[in-house]
Amino acid sequence: MTKGATAPRRSGGSRGSGGTPPEPDYVQLLTPDGERVSHPDYSVDFSDEELRGLYRDLVTVRKLDAEATALQRQGELGIWASLLGQEAAQVGSGRALRSQDMAFPTYREHGVLYCRGIDPIMPLSLFRGVDQGGWDPVANKFNLYTIVIGAQTLHATGYAMGIAKDGKVGTDDGEAVIAYFGDGATSQGDVNEAFIWSSVFHAPVVFFCQNNQYAISEPLERQTRIPLFQRAAGFGFPGVRVDGNDVLACYAVTRAALDNARLGQGPTLIEAYTYRMGAHTTSDDPTRYRVSSEVEAWQAKDPIARVRALLTREQIASDDFFDAVDADAKAEAVRLRERVLNMPDPDPSQIFENVYVEGSPLVDAERKQFEAYAASFEGGAH
Amino acid sequence: MAVETLTLGKALNTGLRRAMERDDKVILMGEDIGKLGGVFRITDGLQKDFGEERVIDTPLAESGIIGTAIGLALRGYRPVCEIQFDGFVYPAYDQIVSQVAKFRYRSRGHVKLPMVIRIPFGGGIGAVEHHSESPEAYFSHTAGLKVVACSNPEDAYFMIQQAIASEDPIIFLEPKRRYWEKGAVDTALGLDAVTPLHSSRVVRSGADATVVAYGPMVKTALDAATAAQEDGRSLEVIDLRSLSPMDLAPVFDSVRRTGRLIVVHEAPGNLGMGSEIAARVTEECFYSLEAPVLRVAGYNTPYPASRLEEEYLPDLDRVLDAVDRSFGW
Ligand SMILES: Cc1ncc(C[n+]2csc(CCOP(=O)(O)OP(=O)(O)O)c2C)c(N)n1
Prior knowledge:
The structure holds two protein chains of two kinds.
Chain A: H1 48-73, H2 87-96, E1 102-104, H3 110-115, H4 124-128, H5 151-165, E2 177-182, H6 189-200, E3 205-211, E4 214-215, E5 218-219, H7 231-235, E6 239-243, H8 247-262, E7 268-273, H9 292-299, H10 303-313, H11 319-341, H12 361-378
Parallel strand pairs in A: 1-2, 2-3, 3-7, 6-7
Antiparallel strand pairs in A: 4-5
Helix pairs in contact in A: 1-2, 1-10, 1-11, 2-8, 5-6
Chain B: E1 3-7, H1 8-22, E2 26-30, H2 46-50, E3 55-57, H3 62-74, E4 78-82, H4 93-100, H5 103-106, E5 116-121, H6 136-140, E6 146-149, H7 153-165, E7 170-175, E8 182-186, E9 201-204, E10 209-213, H8 217-230, E11 235-239, E12 242-244, H9 249-258, E13 261-268, H10 273-285, E14 294-298, H11 309-312, H12 316-327
Parallel strand pairs in B: 2-3, 2-4, 4-5, 5-7, 6-7, 10-11, 10-13, 13-14
Antiparallel strand pairs in B: 1-8, 6-12, 9-11
Helix pairs in contact in B: 1-7, 3-4, 8-12
């Protein structure tokens, strides 16, 4: 996917409406029926092969996500935060990243991770309780999952400030940063501070808010009275709302914002208007706070069905292709499952490792005590 | 007598209900506490019965929860704030330490902040990071805050009501892994008829060594005492209940009889509650001690991944090991 989008510098929405407007004004390039529509500011120019690739991504990340949910149900993961319904937002934005770009996820960006070319097993140790992520965020250009809501937006901003200091903006091969967060997170002080810092320091960062309409049980109205993308104006940078279930639009809008950032034009807030089709996490029971008719209405806007309709109508792909994608995704899910089941339990010494770079006499002493204590059980001493 | 068998969670829920019935200035604030009833269902049904004006789902911002609760308290309300998990209190830390704790002092007594900050704390539920922390020392160290921890349904029921009735701000720690444990609660008793909020209590009498615990570790200490009995050792267990102020008179009294003290908590030992207790007991009971005060605590590391928490958390064996060490001195 090499072709980018045109690079506008204006807000996507003009008829801003309240928390959950019936038909939000957003950038859309592919309707729920799979029809392509044009937009004055944004477009994509994908080859057939690239369109098939996007479809494959969407199906694969949904399948892997379903497998992880199943693994949790079977007790193999402690918890899982499903991306169901948010595939287009994640694949569209994830594929818009260039290899040199850095991503700061929440705990739900498994689809972005996949599109970065990272092995989908990587975050599962966290959810299994084997470690707390454990990957190298810098080497992977993908930060550790961040559970404390909103904190990563500041990290992303600081990283972007570092890029600017290094002189890596203003060129075609410049670097940019993307920070993911949810609608609930927009209430946090950290997120608002990130908006201010990025604006004042003109940092090359894109704030990608997946507005999935809920923060656990709390609907959008608890966090805002105006459409979230409009908040950007008050901080002094552009905001745009995009159909978060439209992978083409998500790609176009994100690519444009990232390229603006890398060219030295500062931050953008993208509000991807989408819906969390599943529970908040596997610990949650959404029947307590939302009605099934609402879920059904969003089902009709499914991010995958519309791409399939497009590929079918324009004869870009046949049933053979769709079947092959399903089979491949299934095989990948099976492999993922096997690897989760074979993940070794952590060694207790891990408790004491990496607390400090330079060690600590206190931790070292405790580690010795711990080892002696554990050894006392081995001989049946207790 | 109206003795009911309640889980600790349900006891808190019922206690909150009583407090709201008693005083219409009592309002609840927090994330997901309304329709959902909180992620642990501690506020289940309260919004339905008391309305959205009194059970408030707040925006997702802990500093905002505590900061606005201060304003509401200045205006005559009695806010009871729920922090969803221990690890998410830190965005509110500044409001708690710099504002909640110091308002009265700064106003030279002109105002009071009768607010309660409820925090499910501690580990043992197999959760991901930030969901198993024990932040009690941060708050107990701060003058102007009072800090309590309940350990069983009956205390949960009464202590939450006493905390809400208190004129001082209270950090109310709930042992989340014990939410589902059941116990008898005599709901007919008045708040004056039960143990005062800031009193510790001997929960098992014994003669050979004293074990002090609070919150989730009380049960662990009691289990250890049962096991020790089989070895012919009689442990006295004291539930501290109030971490600030601490009521150590029963502890001094006990140590003067047993000569041995073990303090148990999940929080890291370094500069933890056990450090203060050890210092105070040493000052008061030096000549009675047969061995140094020993601490059984979390290690001085971040709380580990859940598959390691059994290794990390103090358990019955580690308490017994400390008892052995005390006797082996
Ligand atoms: C500081 C903080 N407070 C509370 C929580 C508990 N919590 C976890 S996810 C969540 C809701 C997040 O909603 P949103 O930002 O919309 O993202 P979503 O999960 O919907 O993707 C809450 C309250 C947390 N993780 N961190």
